[in-house]
Sequence to fold (313 residues):
Amino acid sequence: MNKRRAEHFLVLLTLAVILPGCATNTPPGARDGIPIIDTHIHLYDAHRPAGVDWPPETDKILFRAVLPEHFDAVCRENGIEATVIVEASSRVEDNQWVLDLVKHNPQRYIALVGSLPIGSDQFSVLLERYAKDHRYVGIRMRDRPGGDDFFTDAVWRDLTLLSKKGLVLDVLLANFTLEDIITIAKRLPDLKILINHVTGLTITGKAAEADWSEMVRKSAKHKNVYCKVSGIFQRSGQMPAPKELSYYAPIFEVVYEAFGEDRIIYGSNWPVTDRGGTYAEQLAIIRAFFAPEGERVLRKLFALNAQKFYGLK
Fold:
């Protein structure tokens, strides 16, 4: 990124952070008229009788009730119109718990990316059950039972079923790699794949490493692969997270150049964002980087690409 463009970004970031505190109380999304769909939040209640399998009780920031009324407040403060929930629990019954939790507000809580045991004997039955609800748009691949032997015939069977049903695959690259993404994309070119959290690398504020950049470009060559610009505070490797755009810009630059304006999607990773800063601070950083690209790109990043990827109405 050249010096002039970096300076432009820093000016925009300053405005994005300062303006919400000025005389107007209008949220950023409402102020510029660009609708925002947050495609990555988690809802759970750590105090349910059954408990939760995430987050751990030792997490003093996240181990609490995180419910629609809490995210409704975030939406009002930041101009968020709708959201896609990503199931953070590995317990099958929690898919229905979330669907029931948000059924009162289908305009805001428009979709759920669920969690099902890929490669299990129950997968197809469970997928048929939950996919009857139009809000159930796909599943997230997070855990990797079997380690290096994860990609069994049963796993490919289930991923193929997901593709045939027109559902999507979100992937958290904690236990998976960009090489895995490429393997899936090649074998199942009709399966829409969404890489979470700018590929899950640790952001250091330095120039992007060449090997990582090359793998991002190789992944992006597959037109069925998209990338979420999300979870940047979590990926910063520092708590609280840095608030300077220059810290994140080298990574944004690689992702944007590789995936282009049509395959980048905004998400927050709320409430995990709370570990690093406020929702508004993270949103301002992302907005500031992409604002120089113009209104068309902002509309795609914040809503249109998500509608296309997830099949949202």
